[in-house]
Amino acid sequence: MSPLSSHNKSPLTSAEFTKDLIDPATRRHSDIGHLLSGVASSHSEDVTQEFINTAQAPSYFQAYGNYSDLVNCAIIDVIYIATPRSHHFQNAMLILEAGKHVLCEKRLTVNAAQAKKLFAIAKQKQCFLMEGLWIRFLLVSVEMRRLFQAGALRTVTHVFADNGLGVDPYRDFATSDRMVSARVFNPLGYASHTERKSSSNSDPLRYDEIPLSGVDETTTILIKFAPSIADGPEIQATASASLHTTTNTVGETAAVRSQDDQGEIQIFSWSWCPSRPRVINRSPGMNSRGFISSDGTDLLPDGAYGLCFESDEAARCICEGLLESSEMPWLESLIVMEFMDTVRWENDVQFPEEIEILEYPVALLPKRSQN
To answer: What is the pTM of this model?
Structure first.
């Protein structure tokens, strides 16, 4: 597997991704291994070499000065895209056209139409393609799904998911860049995935948003889902994200809460990197106090950042000859992308035309804040 990165993401996302794959013992897996072949940057081979040093990659790890050389290397099977979201469509098209499998950092594209085109090309080329929503494969997410399947909640009626980053957008980001808005929209996508899983994958019926102002420093989306059972209550979900405030200041604030009338499942730490679950049970009634029936420990393996688990899923699917993952299927990516498109359109948030179009190839300049 080889990362395809850009200057602004390689110090974090690609480097942590690479470190995660070097030692399978950090994730307690022995059935899957990854041979890291190389990395390419859109800037220069010097930037690529700097990344290799940061990631402490093995000596055989090859530095490529451009993407074309990487995607056309005969020994590479699958490429991980860690470029800004604005470039995902063009990068994925390049890789698929070269007949290589793709694991693409979330969000898959900037709109649903681009996602549909990638799915069609992947099917035509018989290449595996998956959006790298890493939280889907983290151990705490696996445990959360087990709790739902075991009946820890009967019928989910409300889901709350929050992602506060605790940064200053005017100091930390280039506010002149239109793509800065994705820094809030992206975390809201996490919440949308969480809510869909909590609500039996019902389609959202209505969206209500707090108006955006400038760069969307704080955004809240109120969603209603159809009842998961006949004559059952509709499901309400609140997805909130803030650049200024932080979700989990001292480690005891639940970032995600899935609730019914007899309790809730809580997820702690960041919504994009959850660490442990908690189950609270209670009897129906306004004055009924709940009790903790299950309090999970930290499920992030020592030494692992967490990106390794999505890579393991990609490797297993490729070994089985699959084009998509049953855990992170194309339909899931498409539904959430259509949902986020609706949020943008209803709030008149648009990206530059060269980023939204379906034409390929289109040369896009690398920009530090296009996330």
So the answer is: 0.85
